[in-house]
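Q: What changes when tryptophan is included in the input?
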Amino acid sequence: MAKVRILSGMRPTGPLHLGHLNGVLKNWIELQEIYECFYFIADWHALTTEYENPDKISEYSKELFLEWLSVGLSPEKSILFLQSAIKEHAELYLLLGMLTPVAWLERNPTYKEMIQELKHKDLATYGFLGYPVLQAADILIYKAKKVPVGLDQVPHLELTREIARRFNYLYKIEYFPEPEALLSEVPKIPGIDGRKMSKSYGNAIFLIDSEKEVRKKVEAYITDIARPRKSDPGDPENRCVAFNLIRLYYSEEEKKEVVEDCKKALLGCVECKKRLSERVLKFLEPIWERRKELEKRKDWKDLLQIGIDKAKKIASQTLEEVNSIIFKK
Ligand code: TRP
Ligand code: SF4
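A: The predicted holo structure follows.
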């Protein structure tokens, strides 16, 4: 039986951190074994907010691709590509734009939120309003059935479904399938200060950090503040941010031991976090190793091209069909 096709994209807006890795990417890597996966770098979507300073986008795109490979996305298992390399996305975006009511876009909650959040940027542009139409084109051009995304993307996916439905209704053909969100449980990855790990909060551990930086950052994690001395018993599960990182990297048994020793005041925070940083480093080292090998091979462009060629074939086929449906050619 043919595998179900899924698709997702990531905007190239900076280096990856542990939050991406333990959340979205871990999930994408596992999905490779079950589905026919299309994963792409959404550089045009990055441009909707970065159009004033676009110089970093291509550098971030290359970086993102190398990071994807080094964490375990595979150009053999999945179709990995760059959005702007497949111009057909833009053509479908244009065609879908013709039939998408402006009101659908204006009432999109993500749109309103982003405009509020990114007040320092002028996002009153046609391109930013049309963000979900481009996203719909990304998905529908491959007729993907499922889209692994976070909760924040659900409104965009609903719009994609509405656009697909409207196309099918207008041209009296069951052409585009309505894609569904593939929501997975993503653990909350805490940053150094206890807020969600994010580049913009300045609390993240990046894949590109050095060994020294990783150690320093782990040591800076907030611990049980009601425990100024080692001799005070701690409450790791309720009051310690570092423990939320421990949860991700330790076995059940090891976690239990930390909890017990911390509660009995046998384990101090300095020692505890030192062990944790070793563990984080152990997790990062094979990734760094693969990254170095890729750097040496210098053929990342060829690896990306493999996915571009495969994606392009399918995308141009869809465009041909869509044009003949609309223009009755
Ligand atoms: N909007 C998505 C995000 O910000 C990225 C994206 C672009 C995407 N096109 C997509 C995700 C298509 C899934 C499917 O994360
Ligand atoms: Fe947290 Fe470890 Fe300190 Fe306990 S010993 S409070 S788990 S850092």
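Observations recorded in class: The domain at 209-291 is CATH 1.10.240.10 (Tyrosyl-Transfer RNA Synthetase).
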